[in-house]
Amino acid sequence: MLKSLLLGAALGTSLLASASAQDYPTQDIDLVVPFDPGGSVDVTSRLLAEAANKYLDGVSVVVSNRAGGGGVVGQSFVSKAKPDGYTVLAMTSSVVTNPQLKGAPYKIEDFTPVAAYNLDPEVIAIPASSPFQTIDDFVTATKERPLNITVAGIGTSHHMAGLALTSAAGLEFNYIPANGFGEQLQAVVGGHADGAFWPMGEAMVHAEAGTVRILAIASDARDPNFPDVPTFEEAGLNIPIWATFRGWAVPAGTSDETVTFLSDLLKKVFEDDTYQEKMAAAGFDAIYRDAANFQSIITAYSNQVVPIIEDNGLAK
């Protein structure tokens, strides 16, 4: 009798879990952006949510900003959330570096990747009035004196890009930390810095407006919008690709069925023409990489950046 009761209870629990997974989602999904409104992650997350909600029935993806600590506040919140698929992280490369650089209380293993929706390659941007006409001019100048480069902050992926250039190509820089992209832009346009390391998504509109010039792009191919700008590899900088990744992740322990649902949802969004047009208009290249491929991107970035952090004594 007891054995039958236990078996029945086990079957009941299993069926309940199965039904729960099949019914997902039954409530709104909280998409946590760990940065302030208006930045690249916030803008792309809102475009994603707008498109995703067309494919959801009776529920919505709702963007919430939980900024602070260079992403640590929002990232930590999601790492501790219930793994039920209703709390999703707008995941960026800072998730890899924040535990080392800022002592974030989570590990990368505390998240399960869902899908990547954007890879934003790093560029070297300079004032439109800069005397450097080519990337060769820029490289030559760094051999004569360290150039002043404005970055979003020490320990960001953009600062890491500069350290990678020092390791791979012997370029030397002085770093000027800034509070946000606007402050960096003012420094570059005003000639207060020799240049900046930016993601293409933020640099593009200003390069097209003629206020800055792009000397090189850390991608495996030239950007069709700037066909005369060489890649880092073509410029002899010995870095095949350096890109900020953006995607979705959920707390570790989230069911495979839920991860698959969310990944398939992002694939539908990727195939949406209106979403593609809005991403392009905002300066972002829309991509889709499923959970396994997103994990490969994260691992590759970690393998690149962790040794740089350790070699430069930046780890906490």
From TrEMBL:
<protein>
    <recommendedName>
        <fullName>Tripartite tricarboxylate transporter substrate binding protein</fullName>
    </recommendedName>
</protein>
<dbReference type="InterPro" id="IPR042100">
    <property type="entry name" value="Bug_dom1"/>
</dbReference>
<keyword id="KW-0732">Signal</keyword>
<dbReference type="Pfam" id="PF03401">
    <property type="entry name" value="TctC"/>
</dbReference>
<feature type="signal peptide">
    <location>
        <begin position="1"/>
        <end position="19"/>
    </location>
</feature>
<dbReference type="InterPro" id="IPR005064">
    <property type="entry name" value="BUG"/>
</dbReference>
<comment type="similarity">
    <text>Belongs to the UPF0065 (bug) family.</text>
</comment>
